[in-house]
Amino acid sequence: xxxxxxxxxxxxxxxxxxxxxxxxxxxxxxxxxxxxxxxxxxxxxxxxxxxxxxxxxxxxxxxxxxxxxxxxxxxxxxxxxxxxxxxxxxxxxxxxxxxxxxxxxxxxxxxxxxxxxxxxxxxxxxxxxxxxxxxxxxxxxxxxxxxxxxxxxxxxxxxxxxxxxxxxxxxxxxxxxxxxxxxxxxxxxxxxxxxxxxxxxxxxxxxxxxxxxxxxxxxxxxxxxxxxxxxxxxxxxxxxxxxxxxxxxxxxxxxxxxxxxxxxxxxxxxxxxxxxxxxxxxxxxxxxxxxxxxxxxxxxxxxxxxxxxxxxxxxxxxxxxxxxxxxxxxxxxxxxxxxxxxxxxxxxxxxxxxxxxxxxxxxxxxxxxxxxxxxxxxxxxxxxxxxxxxxxxxxxxxxxxxxxxxxxxxxxxxxxxxxxxxxxxxxxxxxxxxxxxxxxxxxxxxxxxxxxxxxxxxxxxxxxxxxxxxxxxxxxxxxxxxxxxxxxxxxxxxxxxxxxxxxxxxxxxxxxxxxxxxxxxxxxxxxxxxxxxxxxxxxxxxxxxxxxxxxxxxxxxxxxxxxxxxxxxxxxxxxxxxxxxxxxxxxxxxxxxxxxxxxxxxxxxxxxxxxxxxxxxxxxxxxxxxxxxxxxxxxx
Amino acid sequence: xxxxxxxxxxxxxxxxxxxxxxxxxxxxxxxxxxxxxxxxxxxxxxxxxxxxxxxxxxxxxxxxxxxxxxxxxxxxxxxxxxxxxxxxxxxxxxxxxxxxxxxxxxxxxxxxxxxxxxxxxxxxxxxxxxxxxxxxxxxxxxxxxxxxxxxxxxxxxxxxxxxxxxxxxxxxxxxxxxxxxxxxxxxxxxxxxxxxxxxxxxxxxxxxxxxxxxxxxxxxxxxxxxxxxxxxxxxxxxxxxxxxxxxxxxxxxxxxxxxxxxxxxxxxxxxxxxxxxxxxxxxxxxxxxxxxxxxxxxxxxxxxxxxxxxxxxxxxxxxxxxxxxxxxxxxxxxxxxxxxxxxxxxxxxxxxxxxxxxxxxxxxxxxxxx
Lengths: 636, 370
Fold this sequence. Notes:
Structural class of chain A: alpha+beta
Number of strands of chain A: 25
CATH superfamily of the largest domain in chain A: DD-peptidase/beta-lactamase superfamily
Number of domains of chain B: 1
Low-confidence stretches of chain A: 605-613, 619-636
Order of helices and strands of chain B: HHHEEEHHHHHHHHHH
CATH topology of the largest domain in chain A: Beta-lactamase
Low-confidence stretches of chain B: 365-370
Oligomer: heterodimer
CATH class of the largest domain in chain A: Alpha Beta
Number of helices of chain A: 21
Largest sheet of chain A: 7 strands, mixed
Shape of chain A: elongated
Strand order of the largest sheet of chain B: 1-2-3
């Protein structure tokens, strides 16, 4: 008995020692994990917790000069799902969410089905993240959330185990989730589409997780992308950093003028059915672009719908400017004292053999004063004026006027145009370039050159952005008008204005550009396009008119270009016939909108009533200016 | 002897309190009683039962030993047929509103029966037949039934504890090698055909490549322990309770390690050691073989279970699914371990009352009690 007893007691002690040693070993193991590996393991947990939520910055708005919103970002949600939490309820979830998200059900179901992949070490994994739809309005997301909570799983009244209850709760609240996003909207649809441009969304990686960002593809959205974008914030446990929202861009555009221009272009487009049209409204003194429009156009909300409408013809298309370009040579000759407007020049009765080729006028002119050369648009007279300048001076003045260079307008789609240096010129180039051949320009370059003459000879950089401001309207940066250089003398410009005014008269080429209450100066242009290897198709023309008003104190410089007006429509094809009426309509409405003081009393053929109404209109405007209220920028 | 029972009860109550505190900590912020309510009921029942058991002489259990074993086997068979299935295992019995795990009851019943058998056959334990084959069949029946539930963890634990009881009862080591080898062999065979368990072993051997899959739980537990450091992140400050599955039952020690650090882990280990050693001390000084074997069985049951659980949580052992005595959430386990503690106290108290042991008296008494 005693033997058995001591033996069993010894055995108890031996086994107990083993287990005690086991516990000591555990204490050592825990010391290793909790003290030696503490830093490393704790850091892994920290890092995992830092995988925090980014707070996307809102993209700035694009506004017109008066604060009309042209582009804005509204909060939206990206709706995502974790397929591994949906268990076998994919079909129910797809059926419930498809109408709410406005997506087809089969596609949604496919996304919700878990994808099982095998990792390199042979472990099966299901995907836990799919994007169901991007840019979902916040209201729709709220509806999705409610629908998930109210999901009818057919479990009502059944007793559920704790784990099943937990699973159901996870399915209802966590299987479908959303991340912050923004939706870019263009409330005025296609208005000023070519200036604003459009954006494309994408997922960008940041230190704090992925963010959905909109970035500009073209237009101001692209060129001022950095200003509009802002800086993302983030949120993690206990800490957060508010996002710095993007800056609002205030354009020099006036939505109302833009609207007038687009309206009149549309009307002209219907009448002329051309390939395309463009129009620009610029303030000569400041270079501010008040409107820039092209047809065909597009809706930046759905840029893919009209891919051929995305071309910004006003800045990206080049054309041979034709007669509108004549002002460059003549005003330079005036400025250099090479001629006076009253001086006469022999226009060779319409045919002039020079440099081995014939140069023709559209009508046989004899002796013309240079003023008449301008108003009748004589090629021969203009060529002779250019000959007085010489090749070097002609080239020099053309580049001074900004041709062949980027204008500096903050838009991505810009062409330089083409002006070759004199050493590559042929013998007749000096007679062809001044009449707007052998040279290509963009409509914007032509408008800015004309605006320089209206501005007394100083070329302005086109200004499209008025200022940058933050969301609260505080000005961050104000842009001032930027004069580039003096091109010609002021007196020469004043002379030139007189000549250009005679163009817009009953016996000039642009009688249809005349306005009742304002004096108008301008120049028509009609060129045959170089298509199918020839200039002589007789079908493809570029017709334009560029002019400014009022002549003595120009407030507006307006260009209208018509690309390939349809001659068969019976509406003619010359700038004076095709483009001038559009100019007139735009000028009349814009001047009235801006309340520019009229400088004319209309000739009313003795109609007392008309005279009276004109007088009243005049008085109304002058009295307003007399009260110190600036009529637009007349006081500048 | 008084010292042993005092330390035993003190360490048991300390572990129980620590468990309650941790369960409070891992409950959701607005539902602090999520786990506590049921745990408190089980603790109350267990403590009441333990108190009663401590009052009566442990010898009175001997009369009930075969009956208890019969009930246990009956319940195990019942649970196999009509048990509540949770996660592909039938471990639960439902009687009206009460659910319990028969395997927990079977642990106690088997230990009581083995102790009784060992005491009766004390003199013939050295024979292969009485020392190994007969008790081995009893053990095999009970652990086998638990094994097919399946509850491998409990089966292995109970098998190991039973071996300890047989060793202490006097069976020959060489004889015992046979069932041990047989048990391990069949375990390996089952393992080979069971993908879930083989995955767990694979995960245990390759913790780095399986941390997103099978080894996820072990990895999260490791992170929790590591994050705790020396002094822990503080009560209620655990972050790993969210990613860690079964944080309230099998892996609760990871949360203790996270919130109270290595200091907390050591406290738990020391408390279990105190409990175990005072149990062993009670066994060594037991007045009768039944008491000695019963106390040994219970001490090793609790000690081994704690050891395996801590080993699993600290990635030393493969994942088995055993609760941590006194601490893990789970009514049956808590109630049974408290009842076991009551029996240990009863054995200890019987030692105290022993007055001048007379070997002859004992010898005379033997046939009567047998």
